[in-house]
């Protein structure tokens, strides 16, 4: 999983040895790969998540208690966009860790033996590593892939050094493998295929170790150490501002000093994520968000059943409201109190304003529509949408043609059936006439 246009689809197609043109991953896409060992056929189910953090709740679909024991995760980061790297990686891995932890809790209730096996396997993978006490091991096998290395290798030496050190910290602190990838460099394609094959089919893990930032990094899980990675690079301003006390925050502050992280395009991405999670829960029955925020100084986020009248408190009354109040039920009491502070417009006026606003909106529709603004256009998405529309038009045309042919064939059958019925009727009439003639002819002979 990763943000859009970072090479995930190319990586998957190269692993599956398919020569196909890639398209942008819109949300969550599925494919599979097969591997035959003697008489045993293994199948790897591959789920590709595009859209980055904004679609993270779709992870609930592939990561379940039924398959978590055989699941693994690959996070792809764009090496050419360090200004997005930190926020993207930790946004994805924090959400993924929360999902996996929830699934493991469900598994522990449903199948404690399977849960114990996962815990034992994690301890076995960690072994006696000297950084064991400092690591926050990811609960399932994890790999970090740096994409677009063919472009990244042309960056300035100091920039490559700082990015590579940060990536090594990101991967090692979560006890993950680290691998560089480029669809244009066959040696990296081979290494990445070996990594995915190890995660998908449990083949032998590559033992290639490359930690030189002047070369493509290739570090199996457990082969790195904080001592080998070294300390982050600090600027003078970072040293004076630093307040962090744990390694992750120290590295974050140092990395963001060199590569200030770009804010998300949406005005308030955290609210977008929460709202998507709510809609996903209602539409697809994914796990409901448990985020609870009742502070009026912050965006409210209250799952159903998490609030209470006691916590809400009483409405705010003005002096005039207390003297006028006649309501006897909570809804009317709140209505009178709210109307005292915010007098409500009469419905006729509200409708009038609505139609005026609607007319103005229609006038400015072309001007205000973001899809018509060149700065918001995405050529890849536009091409994909045009292709989908052409496919839809072709499908509709073919469907109409099929219906026309079926109707024509049905009419021909009806005509043939009608013609056949008429011929049979005529034959019956001729046969009847023949019988009558044969009956009358003897009488005619007797009475010439």
UniProtKB/TrEMBL annotation:
It is found in: Cytoplasm, Cytoskeleton, Cilium basal body. Keywords: Cell projection, Cilium, Cilium biogenesis/degradation, Cytoplasm, Cytoskeleton, Developmental protein, Dynein, Microtubule, Motor protein. GO terms for molecular function: dynein heavy chain binding. One of its GO terms (cellular component) is microtubule. It comes from the Eukaryota. SUPFAM superfamilies: P-loop containing nucleoside triphosphate hydrolases (SSF52540). GO terms for biological process: intraciliary retrograde transport; intraciliary transport involved in cilium assembly. PANTHER family: CYTOPLASMIC DYNEIN 2 LIGHT INTERMEDIATE CHAIN 1, DYNEIN 2 LIGHT INTERMEDIATE CHAIN, ISOFORM 2. Belongs to the dynein light intermediate chain family. This is Cytoplasmic dynein 2 light intermediate chain 1. It comes from Ascaris lumbricoides (Giant roundworm).
